[in-house]
Amino acid sequence: MSSSAVPNSGPAVPAAPPVHRPGLTWWKALVTGAVGAAVVNLTVLAVAELAGASLIVVDAGASHPITVGGVIGASVVPLLVGTGAAFLLALWKPVFLRIAQYVGGGLALLSVAGPLSSDADGGTVAALSLMHITLGVAVVITLNLHRLHPARGVSTGARAGE
Description:
The chain is mostly helical. The chain is built from five helices and two strands.
């Protein structure tokens, strides 16, 4: 008995390699964003100091100097809290990463109103405003660094909702 069928030599189309999207894990994205925001804001502080800005904000008659520690704290803590919360929410629904980019970036930009309405010299106001804008950009970039990372258990294609 003869058969004209060709023995199965494997699939007709070779399997495509899994799509690898570049991206960082949540903790690497947090560290990168926090360090990046702090470094940029410390650079803004140094430039403002070299330019002769007073780096003192007067609030209700009390003067508050802008210090290196204050800049690091104001750069790192909000970014860690906000993006960390977004990463936790994204475990439930990945679309929260995109929503957090808009909300976090928008809130940081709205917070520029504080320095603009403060009783300080022009150089200090400009430096503080730029620091707030930097934080907004850092939030968006940090979330995007992680958003590009593939979801657990997904080897091809884009995640739903993003």
